[in-house]
Known about the structure:
- This protein is mostly helical.
- It is 90% helix and 0% strand.
Amino acid sequence: xxxxxxxxxxxxxxxxxxxxxxxxxxxxxxxxxxxxxxxxxxxxxxxxxxxxxxxxxxxxxxxxxxxxxxxxxxxxxxxxxxxxxxxxxx
Length: 90
């Protein structure tokens, strides 16, 4: 039988406070672990997407450059020939 204001009551209060602080700290740690796991998963996914994007971009650039060189070489040659004719009249 406990009397109000007895030392046992303060011990119970202390245990409850420790338990609540421990629970809050555990929750924060679990939340941190979950956030870190999500960050790493998203980072790996982002790296895969960037690698795929850069690969597709380089393939696209190569095909555009190859087709562009063939289509642009003729007008450039004609333009340079016209400049030569204007610069050095025959």
